[in-house]
User: Fold SAM-dependent methyltransferase from Pseudoteredinibacter isoporae.
Amino acid sequence: MSLVQQCRQWLHQRANVPLSPNALAEDMATWAGTPLGQAIIEEERASIDELLRYRFGYHLCSFSHLRQNDFTGESRINHKIQMIQLDALDNVVSEDMKVDGFSPLPFDGSRLPLATDSVDVLLLHHCLEFSSNPHELLREAQRVLIDHGHLVITSFNPLSVYGLISNLARFTQSSQLWRRRFLTARASRDWLQLLGLEPLQLIPHFYRLPLSNKTLLNRSRWMESAGKKLGALNWGASYTLLARNDVFAMNAIKPRWQKPKSAEQFASSAIGRQAKRSGPKLVVTNPKPTSPAHK
Assistant:
């Protein structure tokens, strides 16, 4: 076997080692505690707040490997669900995994344990990069969202200085943080459109150099304003993408000569349609027996 073939085999084996959700959460928490991680998360949080501030509904679901972080502080939706991915042999949500104000809900990382058309807003914060099947995760997101529900995705940008450094770190670092997929904003938009999710807004963020020194990071804040002026190039370290679930029901076209509804019939049908969304209950499918029951 040649040296090139050996390198390819090693890269293939390294890329296909299953990720441990609990170990990944620990590595993400360690990264988030560094000056660079804090600076990137600060920019991401500002973008997410901007998008969630004007999204309304009954149920909001959030999934992030940064389990102790609440990225929905600006949302006006009262009922919030925290999706927690656990290891295969772990079915208990410990107290250190929970976020105040959220209903914790464990799942296996593939099928979302939520009923179809039940969630108004879904947030996936750095989830697609670490998913074994990101297409399936997006398909599940489209399934659980109501018609005209909103999906917010945050992902690292491989077409950036930070992305290039991350690409090199995956060969030299053992942390699971670097064993992620590289999803460009264009690829994410294409996937969303194939599933009937209409991309509405893309916000790139963190244009500074990925330095580990806090003082140098603060001195390079001027790069943020310069990068935003060239935002169309999208060379920020990460990006946040807002999409809407545009699923339209096909209604039969009635003949023009059909007798129109009376005022009473029209009012009763309108009231009936309004009642369907007056107070929906979120149905959780196959919840873990050890997780808190949601009523």
Remarks:
- The two ends are 59 Å apart (CA to CA).
- The beta strands are 59-64, 79-85, 102-107, 119-125, 145-156, 197-205, 238-245.
- The chain has one domain: 17-275.
